[in-house]
């Protein structure tokens, strides 16, 4: 989609991806503007009242006991954003920053934050013009929201700090605003707080990870089908009647995919008769639906949490415009998102682990059923895919470390006012590394399985898996032969997995996978 309109209701995951990853333009709907105006009127009324209201006429966090006089409240908001824009480390990826900006805008449009419409519209303009604030890796504890990352974005709206323009050029925010014909915002009462107090960074990364994992789990089934074929395994264990007696939905979907992917395989048919002495395949082949299906179910649970969070208005204090009041709350705590981010890192590591085990079986002459050691052309002179498996193993080992949950940690902050935090941003950051690792591990399995299928000639693979082999060959990855520079072939396979080309090749033959 080229354009997304933000209303008072939740944005969809597809809209988040369109804006974050594809650069879609953003506008605010009329209903949302009305809701923004209604909430702003409540804030203005409370700002004029003699009674202190948190976030409007007081300090913040542990400094909330100080009542701030009217003439200092503009400075209060500026000071809040400047002091909280305290991130450090490498720049965060453009798609992550765009995602968190969109999600913050979505919350502003619910009419529960009390910002002015011009502030919300400037945030939408940043997205439309491709202006991306520089956000640093470290700074969020995942409670009181992703304060530091969001503060760097709010700072840019003020015309301060650094941004990258649509071409990726680094420049001062004031210059980017001027080039786009935009004016920086002068923050009013509560606006600074409303711009920085949300779970948007961790939620945006959750949505992007869910999008990637849904595709990668289908690729995992493709890779597994190629491995079962190449290792002369059986498809009988994936029969629907066997899955029905343990009715996990993900397991059934994965098993059905494997059956379809191996349909009409000459290799499988070659050892299906009464002379076959293979009683049971190894777990890494036979239990694929149980592992990759459980991963699917976990992804869908995480998606249900993401859906609820997308429908939330995360801010503190929150404006209840219908009742004309502002109330403090704890909805900014990132625990619901942090838990599922950690859970996804666990399933990514385990799917990568079973993929690596399937790959390793191809390379061991004692277990690969007649294939040359390491799939080498001239074993001893050639090493074949020996070190490709080392690469997989290194990545899987790293992913196991990344599966250690961030959300079980907490560290007190703000003079013990914020004494329990979620570490959800940290969970999100490590999940991004896990998703990249899974992509690479699956790519090596596809690469290795394709070589094995070629070595089974004149037996022929299924039409679906043959399409994947053909894709690799057409992309410049050669078939079996003497050793050659392997890293570029691995990177080609990685790009074909990441882009969706491997999935598309298989689905072009058998239709959409479950």
Automatic annotation (TrEMBL):
**Keywords from the named record:** Histidine metabolism, Lyase
EC number(s) per UniProt? 4.3.1.3
Q: Which gene encodes it?
A: hutH
Q: SUPFAM superfamilies this protein is in?
A: L-aspartase-like (SSF48557)
Please list every transmembrane segment annotated in the UniProt record, as residue ranges.
Answer: none
Q: In its UniProt entry, what is this protein called?
A: Histidine ammonia-lyase
Q: What class of enzyme is it?
A: lyase
Report the Pfam families cross-referenced here: Lyase_aromatic (PF00221)
Q: In which pathway does it act?
A: Amino-acid degradation; L-histidine degradation into L-glutamate; N-formimidoyl-L-glutamate from L-histidine: step 1/3
What family is it from?
Belongs to the PAL/histidase family.
Intracellular or extracellular location(s): Cytoplasm
Entry-linked InterPro entries:
Aromatic_Lyase, Fumarase/histidase_N, HutH, L-Aspartase-like, Phe/His_NH3-lyase_AS
**Catalyses which reaction?**
L-histidine = trans-urocanate + NH4(+)
């Amino acid at each position: 989609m080229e354009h997304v309109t933000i209303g008072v209701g939740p944005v969809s995951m597809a809209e988040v991806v369109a804006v974050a990853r594809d650069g879609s333009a953003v506008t605010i709907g009329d209903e949302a503007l009305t809701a923004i105006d209604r909430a702003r009127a409540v804030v203005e009324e409370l700002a004029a009242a003699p009674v202190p209201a948190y976030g409007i006429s007081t300090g913040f966090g542990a400094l909330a006991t100080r009542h701030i006089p009217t003439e200092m409240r503009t400075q209060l908001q500026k000071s809040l954003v400047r002091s909280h824009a305290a991130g450090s480390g490498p720049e965060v990826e453009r798609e992550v920053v765009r995602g968190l900006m969109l999600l913050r805008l979505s919350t502003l449009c619910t009419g529960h934050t009390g910002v002015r419409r011009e502030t919300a519209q400037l945030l939408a303009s940043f997205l439309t013009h491709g202006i991306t604030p520089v956000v640093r890796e470290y700074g969020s504890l995942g409670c009181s929201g992703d304060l530091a990352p969001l503060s760097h974005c709010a700072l840019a709206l003020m015309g301060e700090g650094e941004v990258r323009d649509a071409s990726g050029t680094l420049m001062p925010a004031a210059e980017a605003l001027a080039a786009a014909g935009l004016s920086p915002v002068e923050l009013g009462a509560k606006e600074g707080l409303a711009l920085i107090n949300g779970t948007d960074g961790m939620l945006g990364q959750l949505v992007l990870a869910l999008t990637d994992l849904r595709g990668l789990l289908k690729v995992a089934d493709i890779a597994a089908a190629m491995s079962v074929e190449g290792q002369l395994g059986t498809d009988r264990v994936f029969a629907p009647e066997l899955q029905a007696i343990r009715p996990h939905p993900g397991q059934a979907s994965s098993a059905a995919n494997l059956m379809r992917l191996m349909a009409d395989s000459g290799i499988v048919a070659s050892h299906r008769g009464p002379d076959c002495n293979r009683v049971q395949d190894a777990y890494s082949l036979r239990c694929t639906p149980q592992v990759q299906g459980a991963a699917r179910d976990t992804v869908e649970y995480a998606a249900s949490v993401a859906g609820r969070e997308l429908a939330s208005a995360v801010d503190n204090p929150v404006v209840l415009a219908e009742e004309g009041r502002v109330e403090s709350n704890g909805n900014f705590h990132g625990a619901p998102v942090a838990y599922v981010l950690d859970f996804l890192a666990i399933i990514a590591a385990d799917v990568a682990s079973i993929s690596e085990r399937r790959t390793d079986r191809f390379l061991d002459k004692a277990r690969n059923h007649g294939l040359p050691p390491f799939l080498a052309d001239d074993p001893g002179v050639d090493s074949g895919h020996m070190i490709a498996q080392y690469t997989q193993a290194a990545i899987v080992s790293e992913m196991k470390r990344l599966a250690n949950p961030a959300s079980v940690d907490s560290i007190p902050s703000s003079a013990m006012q914020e004494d329990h935090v979620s570490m959800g941003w940290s969970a999100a950051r490590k999940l991004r590394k896990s998703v990249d690792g899974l992509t690479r591990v699956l790519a090596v399995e596809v690469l290795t399985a394709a070589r094995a299928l070629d070595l089974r000639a004149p037996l022929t693979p299924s039409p679906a898996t043959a399409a994947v082999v053909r894709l690799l060959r057409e992309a410049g990855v050669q078939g079996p032969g003497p050793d050659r520079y392997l890293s570029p072939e691995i990177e080609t396979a990685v790009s074909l997995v990441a882009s969706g080309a491997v999935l598309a090749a298989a689905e072009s033959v058998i239709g959409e996978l479950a």
